[in-house]
Design goal:
This protein has 346 residues and is an alpha+beta fold. The protein contains 12 helices and 12 strands. The termini are close together.
């Protein structure tokens, strides 16, 4: 695997160079040990990052595992757990998972970004996230459209925790990280919990937009559904295990990879995008016609970090994860796609 490691190192040098911490990990065939390369190469241990929305895949796995145990069903109504939220609106867990419930997001809510800059260590509580998003109404009737919604996964997290009788952090530690031996994967609950992550700064944490150290200022509670911290190696192994049938049943994996179409990719983005017909399943993005064949995965991004992870079953079951401490919306995805191109050419 030495030549593969060098080829991945060349990808990192081309796309990142000395512009911050970054890493790529590849599981080249099912259950193989990951090949991981990172910069700065002088770092003794592989850097860890907040993986942001890749956390949605973890939440979906937990919910699907509870479904496999018969403790809930995908078409159960949200009202079973939240009778006072959006009363009379027939929203199912499945619709929350695939973003067809119509719940708005907070990404375009000015107050969210203003408050995060003013007090980055004091995140909104559940009630404020609710008040600023779905309590103001739905974007469309459930099941009639698609719109990405972090608050939808905030509700799913609450459902998972209530049904399982444990916190998200404990469930991921026991059911995913512990069972797979992902020693660097955890759910941080405070600013102090970020101390072991790769150095990163963000201009989103100060009113004057000056760069601030994520690990000293940012509270992970600003991610409404919680956020996993991990390494590229651990996340690549997670995707390998998921599609290797070690986390959910075959029936649940089929449900997970049943896609609803996404809105049309803007022409300007389509020119440089390898996506063919992208869709969204249950906590996972997918494409049945990418240039690597079928492709499943997720991106993540937030203050300080960008992440991307994919599984390509038509390429001998390759799993790849890329992470960087660079605030560039598409850099991690470009790293992951470049790694897939390396593997396709081998």
């Amino acid at each position: 695997m030495a030549d593969l490691g060098q080829a991945i190192a060349d990808v990192l040098d081309l796309h990142v160079g000395d512009r911050g911490a970054a890493g790529i990990a590849v599981v080249a065939r099912p259950s193989a040990p990951p090949v991981a390369v990172w910069v700065p190469s002088s770092a003794r241990d592989e850097p860890a990052y907040l993986i942001y929305s890749i956390t949605k895949t973890f939440v979906a796995v937990l919910l699907l595992s509870l479904s496999d145990e018969g403790r809930l069903a995908l078409d159960d109504p949200l009202s079973r757990w939240f009778p006072r939220i959006l009363p009379g609106r027939p929203i199912s867990l499945r619709q929350l998972l695939n973003h067809t419930a119509g719940l708005p997001d907070y990404g375009d809510v000015a107050a969210y970004h203003d408050d995060q800059r003013a007090a980055p260590a004091r995140p909104w509580r559940f009630e404020r996230f609710a008040a600023e998003t779905f309590e103001k109404g739905l974007r469309f009737e459930p099941g009639t459209g698609w719109a990405y919604s972090n608050p939808g996964y905030m509700l799913l997290r609450r459902v998972v925790e209530e049904v399982a009788g444990a916190s998200l952090a404990a469930l991921i530690a026991e059911r995913i990280a512990g069972s797979l031996g992902l020693s660097r994967t955890f759910v941080p609950g405070s600013v102090e919990d970020l101390s072991s992550l790769a150095p990163a700064t963000s201009t989103a944490l100060a009113l004057d937009r000056s760069p601030r150290d994520i690990r000293r200022h940012y509270h992970p509670g600003w991610v409404s559904h919680g956020v996993v911290a991990s390494t590229a190696s651990d996340v690549a192994r997670f995707f390998d295990a998921l599609f290797g049938g070690r986390l959910v049943s075959p029936a649940s994996l089929r449900e997970m990879t049943t896609l609803v179409p996404l809105p049309m990719i803007p022409e300007a983005h389509r020119v440089e995008s390898p996506w063919g017909r992208p869709g969204y399943g249950l906590g996972i993005m997918g494409d049945q016609s990418s240039r690597w064949g079928r492709l499943w995965g997720h991106d993540g991004g937030g203050p300080g970090y960008r992440t991307s992870a994919f599984h390509a079953p038509d390429m001998t079951g390759v799993s790849v994860a890329a992470m960087c401490a660079v605030e560039d919306d598409r850099r991690a995805e470009r790293l992951a796609f470049a790694a897939l191109d390396v593997l396709r050419g081998r």
